[in-house]
Every structure is written in C-alpha cells, then in structure tokens.
Recover the amino acids of this structure.
C-alpha cells in the first residue's frame, strides 16, 4: 500500500507531460502534411467566409487551435502565425498570435515543470561543479536569459518553453517574458501573413527569408544585445572584483 501511494502521485504528476509527448508524436506523424501553406491556400476562401460570418467565433477557434499547436509542439506554428495575419490583418492579428503562443507555451511549461522540472531543478541546486554553476548563472540573470532565448531566432520555440521549466523559473516571469519577447518576431510574420492574399493570387509561396533582411534582422539583433547587456555587465563587475 505504501509503495502504491508513492507511485500514484509520481505517475499523476508526469501524466500531463506524457500526454503532451504522445500528442506531439502523433501530431508530427499525422499532421506534418496538413498544416502547410498549400492547405491554407486551398482553404483560403472557406476560412474567409467563416471569419466574415462568425467574427467572434473565428477568433476563438483560431486562438484555441494556436494554443493546441504550441502546447503539443505540433508542426505548423509558422503557418498558424501567418494565418493570423491573413485572416485578421497585422492588427489585431498579432495580438491573437501572441495570446495563442503565450497560453500554449505556458501550458507546456507547467506540464514540464510539474512532471519533471521541480525535481530536476532541486537536483541541480544540490549538485556541484559545472551543472551548479550553469544553474546559478541562469538564476542570477533570469529576466535577461528569458528574453534572450525568445529573441534569438536560432533557439527553437519548444526549447525556450522547456528549459525554463527545468531550471525552476517562476511562472509569472515565464509568462511575461514570453508575451513580450515574442512580439517582434510575431509582428514580422503576422505582417507577412497580412499580404498572403496577393501572394496566393500570384501563385507564389510567402518569402520567409525576409526575417534575414538587414531591416528586420538588425533590430532583432539589437534587442538581443539589449537583453544580454545585464549579463555582460555582471560578468565584467565579477571579473573586476575577482
């Protein structure tokens, strides 16, 4: 009975992250060829008609689908962001995209922290050597690190959701940094989505390489540098005091 009472809470705590992992695997297997630009192109008029006939419901359905895509790390997050701009224009489309991404990311964060993060964070706190130094470094610069991993395009979105859960970041810091940190990227892709109608009319696909244009990339890199500045300042002060 005692072993059973210990086992049940452990399984219960890991159930959310297990469900998400299973959903992610099934999603990659069944939806990788569904949530695509071609699907959006083929259903564009159907989506527009539904939006025009059900303005409030279309927003609720869109945000809910976006939450599910992010929470389960399903393929198609970029297509979903472009769809937000395509259906709702840059504004308020960017707000719907940020809302869906933030809620979905928070759901994944909570599932990971509840199932794995608290124990791993405690083990890292009790460890020594390099692992402990890494954990301490993240703890000392949580806000800067959280904004940095959101702003750097090379960091996959699901990684930026899971790492904070593992190192014990408080929920409110995760939510705030996510909601604000993804705004620049969301704004760029939502604005691209706003012009998808003309792109589809020409029989073309959206040019996502625009994110690497200097006019877009340089401001993003500037924000990354701003987020990293407190870390650099602390390191310089530590080296001088040492």
């Amino acid at each position: 009975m005692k072993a059973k009472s210990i086992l049940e809470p452990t399984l219960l705590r890991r159930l959310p992250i297990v469900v998400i992992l299973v959903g992610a695997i099934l999603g990659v297997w069944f939806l990788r060829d569904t949530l695509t630009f071609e699907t959006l192109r083929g259903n564009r008029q159907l989506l527009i008609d539904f939006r025009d006939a059900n303005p409030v419901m279309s927003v609720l359905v869109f945000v809910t689908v976006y939450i599910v895509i992010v929470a389960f790390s399903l393929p198609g997050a970029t297509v979903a962001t472009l769809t937000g701009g395509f259906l709702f224009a840059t504004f308020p489309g960017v707000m719907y995209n940020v809302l869906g991404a933030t809620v979905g990311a928070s759901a994944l964060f909570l599932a990971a922290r509840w199932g794995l993060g608290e124990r791993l964070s405690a083990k890292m706190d009790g460890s020594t050597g390099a692992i402990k130094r890494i954990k301490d470094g993240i703890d000392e610069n949580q806000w800067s690190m959280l904004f940095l991993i959101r702003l750097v395009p090379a960091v996959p979105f699901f990684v930026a959701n899971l790492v904070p859960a593992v190192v014990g970041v408080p929920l409110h810091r995760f939510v705030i940094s996510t909601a604000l940190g993804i705004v620049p990227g969301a704004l760029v892709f939502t604005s691209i989505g706003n012009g998808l109608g003309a792109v589809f009319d020409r029989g073309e696909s959206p040019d996502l390489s625009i994110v690497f244009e200097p006019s877009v990339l340089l401001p993003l890199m500037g924000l990354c540098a701003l987020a990293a500045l407190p870390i650099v300042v602390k390191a310089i002060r530590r080296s001088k005091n040492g």
Remarks:
- The chain has a mean pLDDT of 81.
- Residues 2-241 form one domain.
